[in-house]
């Protein structure tokens, strides 16, 4: 447990007891991409120190906002909405960057938090990179050994397509291959165990074909980038997410978590 002064601790307890955090009712799904200290400032790049500070806030306020795994949400829906505390938080990462293993995973382990990572499977375990990160030296995406180690420590993995396309620009057949092959790859390469029933749309983009495909393939849930808090009646294939930006300081983080989506 990180150091905290006695006065700060007392103040925090009083604040909790007094119910001064009037957090929103529902499930907040946080969206991260990278946790990295070497890249230029960007909304997709959270610094390790900032990420640790955000996780520490969650760790210290389990009675205000409780971190649950995506799997607990999947299996507990919709009963999870009626349970205390009224605010549940799920931590997600898109794309499958190696810095999730190097920088985010140690912090998650320290606080004992589960998280879910959505893999662009065509890049995983290869030296290929997203175009925008082409200049990064060395391997930039997760390898399957790193994924196995994370999987053994409360990190779940899901499909995010093979090549990260703008799905609505493609035919039904191409979309179906991207989604089905990505999931098959994730499931084949993970150790035996629970599989996520959740898909994650690249760029948050989908059309009627995409929705049809994920229903046909039996995904019970899918993550959009529509901001908001999930309620019992939120469409299951258009779950809301809250982007934590690399420009968010702890004050902004708390605002997004506790105030903005009430
Ligand atoms: Zn993505």
Descriptive overview:
Helix 7 links the parallel strand 8 and strand 9. The chain is about 35% helix and about 15% strand. The strands form 3 sheets. Strands 1, 4, 5, 6, 7 and 10 form a 6-stranded parallel sheet that branches. It has helices spanning about 5-15, 50-60, 70-75, 100-110, 145-150, 170-190, 210-215, 250-260, and strands spanning about 25-30, 35, 45, 65, 85-95, 115-120, 155-160, 200, 220-225, 240-245. It is globular. The relative contact order is 0.16. It has a single domain, classed as Glycoside hydrolase/deacetylase (TIM Barrel). The chain is of the alpha/beta class. The structure holds zinc ion. Zinc ion binds next to strand 5.
CATH C-level class is: Alpha Beta
Ligands and ions found: zinc ion
Say how many strands there are: 10
- In DSSP terms (H or I, runs of 4 or more residues), the helix count works out at 8
Name the quaternary structure.
single chain
Major sheet description: 6 strands, parallel
Q: How many separate domains?
A: 1
> What is the 3D shape?
globular
The succession of helices and strands, N to C, reads HEEEHEHEHEHEHEHEEH
Instruction: Give the low-pLDDT segments.
Output: none
Q: At CATH's second level, what is the architecture?
A: Alpha-Beta Barrel
Strand content: 15-25%
CATH topology: TIM Barrel
Specify Rg, calculated over alpha carbons.
18 Å
| Average predicted local confidence, pLDDT | 94
Measured as a percent range, the helix fraction is 25-40%
Main structural class: alpha/beta
Terminal CA distance reads 30 Å
Tell me the CATH superfamily: Glycoside hydrolase/deacetylase
